[in-house]
Known about the structure:
The chain is mainly α and 225 residues long. The chain has a single domain, classed as Methane Monooxygenase Hydroxylase, Chain G, domain 1. It has 7 helices and no strands. The model is unreliable at 216-225 (pLDDT under 50).
Amino acid sequence: xLEEKLPALKRELIEFASLVESMIQKSIRGLMRKDSAxxxxxxxxxxxxxxxxxxxxxxxxxxxxxQYQPIAKDLRTVLMILKMNSDIERMGDHAVNxxxxxxxxxxxxxxxxxLDTPRMAEEVVQMVNGSLCSFINEDARLARSICxxxxxxxxxxxxxxxxxxxxxxxxxxxxxxxxxxxxIAGNLERIADLSTNIGEDVIFMxxxxxxxxxxxxxxxxxxRA
Length: 225
């Protein structure tokens, strides 16, 4: 019965998201502790698991639609799980990118103390978790708070950029290491954006309000100004 399949589908999604959360945390922990084994675990073990998860969940959603032909809210739920599945898989790719940059950095002298990067990662992991909870509980208020937290992550990314520009300008030998730190910040920022996308979709699902392009409109206005 469809009523039994949907909760099972949500449980799969939660398990997948938990794996990706762990990948993000391990990639940052590996950087901070200079733990190459932890970083290899993300790249060599967790990434294949995440890819397999994405394929399997995609198949389950497709088969459920074909077998039960859900309508109305049930169909919207399955389609949203499909989209979230894709978003979570992309988050996993970004976690691998972070681990790869961290692998380069831990073998070299630090450019600067890492203060904003772990804080940024903590915010991002909370956004990932919160966006999933907002979907499972159909909680538009939580979803909206996730969207608002994206501003915190953006501000931290800008702070990291400003600091690293100063270091690169003062000492060109830091450029390559700084670029890897910027890549890490950029990947964290993109994970936050994907979490925000999920939050926006939850708001639409619960309230029927579209806020997806609000941030893009603000950026376009700033560019015209």
